[in-house]
Design goal:
heterotrimer, A alpha+beta, B mainly alpha, C mainly alpha, A: alpha+beta, Immunoglobulin-like, 7 helices, B: Cytochrome C Oxidase, Chain A, 16 helices
Chain lengths: 338, 558, 197
């Protein structure tokens, strides 16, 4: 029953993936947001210029190798010794300089367009805080915090709704990289950064941390859910609610406090206000646990709680010393937190 | 005054020495040739070690979600692989060739400071062993000990005690700091040698290009290693004296570490490539049977590269959040440095043009270098384009790019140098057949691995990941890249076998097997300890060409 | 390998190339300048950025000690000039005077630090200013110390009468180092005691 629900949850995302990018869901040449598009256009132009350079120089090399190799019937005389040519030096200095000027100016333009873009009214604002090894998303406009899965509204032609991300870090350096939406920007402690995206298609966009941040850098994965405005607003409303209180899970709720889970995690509406680990108020609304490490199934949930090292050795969440009953109750409680 | 004559071939003095005596002789030597050889052998040893580290990583990455290595071991491996490659393979091998060849090429009997030279070697050697001691501490060798796991650029605050408890980071810091002392001393030595010990008539404009490159390399080392030493002193202060250089809680800046590291890190890669330019500039003319085209331009370009390379460092920091004009500045300087680099490629092509090229092993590797360095330069320009770098930076595209330069460029030119100068150093010729096998097998392996590694980068794969998810489209390319290592291993094995068999039973080389033109070929192979019987007086850039072509000497045209 | 140096010298004198010792020392100076430049950059970057704790107002400008140090460059110069002219007693007099002036500078630094650490409780751990102040001034002081050691050793040989005009080139190499240390103090003094306050 629960696995069916999980599958139903996951199916749309799987379908969306297959539709969007056949080669890879993280292909930088499949842009779907203005910053990514700007970069894409610049990169194609540059590839064309460099392609031309390569063809010319490579041809010269191949020609030299073929035409000027020593033949068997050659005598021992040395070829004409040419020491240099000022005209040639000038030519192959001036031409590259011109190419550099062109490339530089086009590049500077794109840098300015992306980095110095004005924030329009109506932009969504999310503060992203990087942690070892998960992502915290604070929707300060709406007054809630979630983790690991970033939801944004689609930004189509009628209603451009970019999302501006403020990037902070709680510990070491991280980097936010969802290739189809934008280039990467680092999250550096004591050095706030910002970036923006305006995805033009609904779907799930994947990425992952791109600045080595420790043992589980490889599994600090990102999932960006681009939704219609209606779906997004509904999601916001759901996230703003305090945690579901299910009386049948009272034992588990008590365990959450007794086993000191509250020291690291927050569950809105309860005593738990820890900020070291992800906010779990609506943990069942997420497709994965461990920041993309494994799908959010009941079995994985239990394995994770018992020992996160099963999926993510080096994760900062310690293994929990629980009896089987306690594990069942705790997991059961978490499963009520939709 | 002194006529130019080839000195009589010196008969090496035979003396009985037991194994112990030989070892003590090598340990106590200040002879630049012995020191050079020790550097080279040391570097080749560590090349094998870092190759093993690479093979282990490529096995792990050949498949998605592999469990061949734990994340802790993998993270230590890539840190050690990068650190070893830069400091204990590339630097020593290039310093070794420089030490061996430059005094011979300039007609001197040794380096300016022979004992300082020995000191540089032993300090460098010790620091490498210090770093590798970390593999055996802590959890023991099977867990990769407490080898550093912070990446070869050791970003703060990952290196702070809070995030790197224990001594793993200290192994990195201390061993590199020590190696840096050896490098700076070696650089001062090389500069004093090239400036102060040239034979009569060898003005700076008649200096062999390899010697010029070592001069530029030395100058760069002086201003590039020191910032790293300074930053590492600051890091040690933070870790042990309670200073706050990179301590965020006290208001410190971790970006400052990045600036200081890359102020070192970028010119460092030019430190590595510039002597390789020297190899190419010595070998291509000899095998094309033509003088180097555009010698003054080559010197000017190299000096220019040296200077401009000091102003490009923040292209490693395009994603850090510098303001737009800051990013734009570094885009400009980085693209500008491509201009003198391109000039060099054109001059090498022009040297080949109209020549009678002999494609013996040294020239094969030079040709590989030219092709691969061209591509590496082009991918470098892509990375210089900041917005493109916002996608490509810190991804496998960067890994592919810099391995293209280091393996496809630097290592290929080092292979060329080996095939070219091995006869001079040992008196024996390497097998040309084995050399061709080495070249083609290694070429295939290199391209299988590093051509295809660009693709996962374009498809979103970040670097320094111990594993990756299936379904991102990365598996096929990673698998192919891993297969390529097999060919590279075979190529290296052929190479090592070639050196051993040649040393034992290779054909005698004689003074000048390649019909070359610089002074090292005017003495025996190997040279006697005093290098040349009589210090010559030269009149041109190619003293031996002048002797062999008295009707058409260079000094009439230069 | 003493035979090496004898053979080497004849080659270099033959056609007037720069002295190896001077080139070597200048190379070292360039490298050391780069190290100091990084510490100066850190100092300047962190001016005013300490979150708490003492500011540079706490420092007393070491005017006397600085004059002693800069004067020691003058005495060092006179000493080497005297040795070139084979005036051995003048040489040793000014050489030792250089040592004394340098030692006064170091002693003054030690006293300043003692006051800051013991009386004011201000250490390298206190804040960003403490970090950058002690590291920069300390780096310079360590270089003064190395210089004093070199001066001391040569001074001993000088007092024993063993230093002759043949060694004047080598003493000039040491002088170069000493002048460098003094020049660095110009920069450090300006940045720490003038700019930062």
């Amino acid at each position: 029953m629960l696995s069916l629900a999980a599958f139903a949850f996951l199916a749309p995302s799987v379908l969306a993936q297959a539709h969007s990018a056949p080669l890879s869901p993280t292909n930088i040449f499949s842009p779907d947001s203005t910053p990514a598009h700007s970069i894409f256009r610049l990169s194609i132009f540059e590839l064309e210029v460099e392609g031309a350079i390569f063809v010319v120089v490579f041809s010269l090399l191949v020609y030299s190798v073929g035409k000027f190799r020593q033949r068997k019937h050659d005598d021992d005389s040395e070829p004409a010794q040419i020491y240099g040519s000022n005209q040639m030096e000038l030519a192959w200095t001036v031409l590259p300089v011109l190419i550099v000027v062109v490339l530089f100016l086009t590049t500077a333009q794109v840098i300015h367009r992306v980095q110095d873009a004005k924030r329009p009214p109506g932009a969504i604002e999310v503060t992203v805080v990087g942690h070892q090894f998960w992502w915290e998303y604070r929707y300060t406009q709406y007054g809630f915090t979630t983790a690991n899965e970033l939801h944004v509204p689609v930004s189509d032609a009628e209603r451009t709704t970019p999302t501006y991300l403020a990037l902070l870090s709680a510990d070491v350096d991280h980097s936010f990289w969802v290739p189809r939406l934008a280039g990467k920007t680092d999250l550096i402690p004591n050095h706030p950064n910002s970036m923006w995206i305006d995805p033009q298609e609904e779907g799930i966009f994947l990425g992952q941390c791109s600045q080595y941040c420790g043992t589980q850098h490889a599994k600090m994965l990102q999932r960006v859910y681009v939704q219609s405005r209606a779906d997004f607003d509904r999601w916001v409303q759901e996230q703003k609610q305090p945690a579901v209180v299910d009386p049948s899970a009272a034992a588990g709720a008590a365990l959450f406090i007794a086993k000191a889970c509250f020291a690291c995690h927050t569950i809105q509406g309860t005593m738990a206000h820890g900020v070291v680990g992800p906010d779990l108020t609506h943990v069942m609304s997420r497709d994965t646990i461990g920041s993309g490490a494994v799908p959010n199934t009941p079995e994985n949930l239990r394995k994770w709680i018992r020992n996160p090292g099963t999926f993510k050795p080096g994760s900062l969440m310690p293994a929990q010393d629980l009896t089987d009953t306690e594990l069942e109750q705790l997991a059961g409680y978490l499963q009520t937190l939709r | 005054m002194a006529t130019q004559t080839l000195p009589p071939s010196a008969v090496p003095v035979a003396h009985k020495s037991g194994a112990l005596r030989t070892i003590l002789e090598w340990m106590g030597t200040a002879d630049h040739k012995k020191i050079g050889l020790m550097y080279i052998v040391y570097a080749v040893l560590f090349l094998v070690v870092m190759g093993i580290e690479a093979i282990l990583m490529r096995i792990q990455l050949a498949h998605a979600n592999s469990t061949f290595l734990s994340p802790q071991v993998f993270n230590r491996l890539f840190t050690m692989h990068g650190t070893t490659g830069v400091f204990f393979v590339a630097m020593p091998i290039l310093v070794g060739f420089g030490n061996y060849l430059v005094p011979l090429m300039i007609g001197a009997r040794d380096m300016a400071f022979p004992r300082l030279n020995a000191f540089s070697f032993w300090v460098t050697a010790f620091s490498g062993f210090l770093l590798y001691g970390s593999f055996f501490a802590g959890g023991g060798f099977s867990q990769a000990g407490i080898a550093p796991d912070v990446g070869w650029f050791a970003y703060a605050p990952l290196t702070a005690p809070a995030f790197s408890p224990g001594h793993s980071t200290d192994y990195w810091t201390l061993s590199i700091m020590l190696a840096g002392v050896g490098s700076i001393a070696g650089a001062a030595n090389m500069i004093a040698t090239v400036i102060g010990m040239r034979c009569p008539g060898m003005t700076m404009s008649r200096l062999p290009l390899f010697a010029w490159m070592n001069l530029v390399m030395g100058g760069l080392i002086l201003v590039t290693i020191s910032p790293l030493t300074a930053a590492q002193l600051m890091l040690m202060g933070d870790r042990y004296l309670g200073s706050h250089f990179f301590d965020v809680a006290a208001g410190g800046s971790v970006v400052m570490w990045m600036h200081f590291f890359w102020i070192f890190g970028h010119p460092e890669v030019y430190v590595l490539i510039i002597p390789c330019f020297g190899f190419i500039s010595e070998i291509v003319p000899v095998f094309s049977r033509k003088a180097m085209f555009g010698y003054p331009a080559m010197v000017a370009a190299s000096v220019g590269i040296g200077f401009v390379s000091l102003g490009v460092w923040a292209h490693h920091m395009f994603t850090v959040g510098m303001p737009s004009y800051g990013n734009a500045f570094f885009v400009l300087t980085t693209m500008v440095v491509a201009v003198p680099t391109g000039i060099k490629i054109f001059n090498w092509l022009a040297t080949m043009w109209g020549g009678k090229i002999r494609f013996d092993a040294p020239m094969l590797f030079c040709t590989g270098f030219l092709f691969q360095f061209l591509i590496a330069g082009l991918t470098g320009i892509m990375l210089a384009t900041a917005p493109f770098d916002w996608q490509l930076g810190n991804s496998y595209f960067v890994v592919a790019h810099f391995h293209y330069v280091i393996v496809g460029g630097i290592l290929f030119s080092i292979f060329a140098a080996f095939y070219y100068w091995f006869p001079k150093m040992t008196g024996r010729m390497l097998s040309e057949t084995l050399g061709k096998w080495h070249f083609w097998v290694f070429l295939i392996g290199f391209h299988l691995t590093f051509d295809f590694l660009h693709i996962p980068g374009l498809l979103g794969m970040p670097r320094r990941v111990y594993t990756y998810d299936a379904g991102r489209g990365w598996e096929t390319w990673n698998f192919i890249a891993s297969i390529g290592t097999i060919f590279q291993v075979i190529g290296i094995l052929i190479f090592v076998y070639n050196m051993i068999q040649a040393y034992i039973q290779g054909p005698v080389a004689g003074n000048d097997p390649w019909d070359a033109w610089t002074l090292e070929w005017a003495t025996t192979s190997p040279p006697p300890e005093y290098n040349l019987a009589r210090i010559p007086e030269v009149r041109s850039r190619r003293p031996l060409w002048d002797i062999k072509h008295p009707e058409d000497p260079d000094w009439k045209y230069e | 390998m003493s035979t090496n140096s004898a053979v080497l010298q004849s080659g270099e004198d033959a056609w007037g190339l720069p002295s190896r010792g001077k080139v070597g020392m200048i190379s070292l100076i360039i490298a050391e300048s780069a190290i100091f430049a990084i510490f100066v950059a850190a100092y300047i970057f962190y001016i005013g950025k300490s979150l708490s704790g003492p500011t540079p107002q706490i420092l007393q400008i070491p005017i006397l000690a600085s004059i002693c140090l800069w004067l020691s460059s003058v005495t060092m110069h006179w000493s080497v000039v005297a040795l070139h002219k084979n005036k051995k007693s003048t040489f040793i007099l000014f050489w030792l005077l250089t040592f004394v002036l340098g030692a006064i500078f170091l002693g003054a630094t030690a006293r300043e630090w003692h006051h800051l650490i013991v009386d004011e409780g201000f250490t390298i751990q206190t804040n960003l200013f403490g970090t950058t102040y002690y590291s920069l001034v300390g780096l310079h002081a360590s270089h003064v110390t190395f210089g004093l050691i070199a001066l001391f050793i040569v001074g001993l040989f000088g007092l024993a009468g063993k230093v002759t005009t043949e060694h004047s080139d080598r003493c000039e190499v040491i002088a170069l180092y000493w002048h460098f240390v003094d020049a660095v103090w110009v920069v450090v003094f300006t940045v720490v005691y003038l700019l930062g306050r």
